[in-house]
Design goal:
About 60% of the residues lie in helices and about 5% in strands. The protein contains four helices and two strands, in the order αββααα. A hairpin with a 7-residue loop joins strand 1 and strand 2.
Length: about 110
């Protein structure tokens, strides 16, 4: 390998070590990984899950967006928003990061 390529590979390894730390290997033979969210305690976790569920309920209720009979808001088109999120979600980039990380960790 050329010296320049070796330096690039070393820099890529450093970047991978610095930024590819969201997933933790499960430690078994399945090859799966774990992604964690940080919470203070079980109560905070429960509150977070509860708030996510409430948000979903509100988003799906058509009448939840009307403050009075005279002022009406358009209902949230949850399906459209989720379709847009799917289109914006960078799966190809995640796949690239996964392949680079696997190459450098081996």
């Amino acid at each position: 390998m050329k010296t320049n390529e070796i330096k690039k590979l070393e820099n890529l390894r450093k970047l991978t070590a610095k930024y590819c730390n969201i997933l933790t290997p499960s430690g078994d033979e399945t090859g799966t990984h774990t992604a964690q969210i940080k919470v203070l305690n079980y109560y905070e976790l429960g509150c977070t899950i509860t708030e996510i569920i409430k948000l979903c309920i509100i988003a799906l209720e058509q009448d939840a967006h009307q403050t009075s009979a005279t002022i009406k808001y358009s209902p949230i088109n949850v399906a459209l928003i989720l379709e847009m999120v799917l289109e914006m979600f960078p799966l190809d980039e995640f796949e690239l990061i996964t392949e680079i990380n696997e190459l450098l960790v081996e």
